[in-house]
# Entry
Amino acid sequence: MRRYFNPSKVALNLSVFLLALFILGPILWLGVHAFVTDWKYPHLYPSGLTLNWWSKVFLDSALKTAIRNSLIISPIVVVLSMVICLPAAYAAGRMNYWGRKTFMITLFSANSFPKIGLFAAIATLYYTLNLMGTFLGVVIIQLLGTIIYMTWIPAAAFASVPRYLEEAARDAGASKFTVFRTITLRMAMPGILVAIVMSFLASFDEAQGSYLVGAPTIYTMPTEMYSLVQNYPIQVAAVFSILLAIPSVLLLGLARKHIMGGQLAEGFQIK
Amino acid sequence: MKNVEANMGLELRGLKKILGGRVIIENLDLSMAKGEMISLLGPSGCGKTTTLRMIAGFLIPDAGTVKVAGKDVTNLGPEKRPSAMVFQNYALWPHMTVSRNVAYPLKIKGLGKIETAEKVEAALGLVNLLHHQDSRPGRISGGEQQRVALARALVQEPDVLLLDEPLSNLDAKLREKVREDIRELQRRLGITTVIVTHDQEEALSISDRVAVMNAGKIEQFSNPQDLYRHPATEYVATFIGALNRFEGNLVEGRIVSGSDVIGIRPEDLILSSQQNDDALPGTVELVIPRGHFFEVVIRREDGIFKAFTNEFIPAVGENVFVKIKKSLRYQNGKLVG
Ligand SMILES: Nc1ncnc2c1ncn2[C@@H]1O[C@H](COP(=O)(O)OP(=O)(O)OP(=O)(O)O)[C@@H](O)[C@H]1O
Ligand SMILES: [Mg+2]
# Structure
């Protein structure tokens, strides 16, 4: 087979390459800067390799505290969010079509209200409740950002479990609770996993509200970034960014394996 | 008394159900013996599924009682009733393998591992599906899914087996085979069975007795021959099999005007080329081959008749004599002779 020079194909490849560069470029830049001593414009190569920035992060107590705070707060936020939202999501998923639509749209409108305005209002409430600068205050503010994920996605997942599959289990002798545990919850699990991942990331990356409520006593990784950028060399921020990205990458990998490749996806092939 | 109870399969007495403000089932009585297989047959929307769901316990009747094997179960939920249902779309759980689907009822009952495995194997053997034990329901054919659903019901050793249009999702050829398999299994296990269908051929060929339903009531509950030869109501006569229906009376082999309704089965018309006793002349308008017999449409002066014949086959336009061998007479929808 002879190959012809194909301009449209070349253009396509080029645009894919540029898009990839645009998306991956900053990450590449971060990756390089986390390991080099210095690399500024007129120089073609970095001046040297080092792990210095990493030890700086792990030895600095403020940075360490921020990492620890984030790793404690986000799981708590996710668990609380599940406890609060999943029953509501189940109820919504079991409503009729219009009930569910109304519920979802109400939530969505509340969520699309500008965040910073909401935070300002909450801040005044926090002062009267003495929640400013507290751990609980930060948890609550992050919780707000997860609600939309933890209700919308699981509600849709619960709604998509066919009633007759639950009835078949009742007929086989299972109590209502057993049916929920072994059939409904099990089949809604992919949706719930997605919601957990999205909520964790929303909480883990949340900066505005956490800064407003937490600073200067409680810093999480994203809010620590603000002072980091001002007080440290750029390479330390690069290291920190990479650390910040690790949970997202891990969770997405996990979710992909369990949701897209696994038996759960296969299960949804029959009606 | 005790003996009668032991022989009871299922008894419905005075069942009534209102749904969406409408009376769907009204004063329905039905009783069947242990080991019997019956069909609920009727047109779409007549309340077959509603009746079956009241037997299974998914619907609690507004009035009346449900007794299974002599025990009143009217107010029990489906998990407490000794009935097992095969759903129209099979309702297999997609996240479990075939054998886990079948094992589920036993696990719920708290049976031990070894006993469960034995019973699951026996049930899957019964429906010839041992080779698909570890497959997921989504990966096997419709007919196989149907058999898994059946195995899942049988493994519960129910007092009543309920099947809601179990064959409607299968293609025509498979349907006939599966229905014979179901009947054979039912006979062998001696299991009391109620099957819902709107296919009369299916109902007549598979069941000991058929309950013909119309608008929430049972019109007639009888064996297939009886339903066909002695339909108790005009509705049953027209619903089961083909029928020539005339408004009028039958006098000396001729339809004359009157207040009755006369029904004649197409095979109860005798065609011949010669005049004999009660036969009246007519002209053949249509001859349709129907496989092992011919359908012949004849115009007589008193009406148009459809006849089934396989002995004398006339040609279109030919003049023949038509004799009415047997007829059904209805007054106000009820059989009078
Ligand atoms: N939950 C409900 N609310 C209101 N009406 C209902 C409900 N369920 C069933 N009906 C009505 O009751 C009637 C009988 O329904 P049913 O499902 O028992 O019919 P069917 O004989 O099984 O028909 P098909 O052959 O179509 O399955 C129908 O007119 C249906 O619209
Ligand atoms: Mg039905």
Summary: The radius of gyration of chain B is 24 Å. The pocket of magnesium ion (ligand 2) is lined by residues B 48-49 (CB under 6 Å).
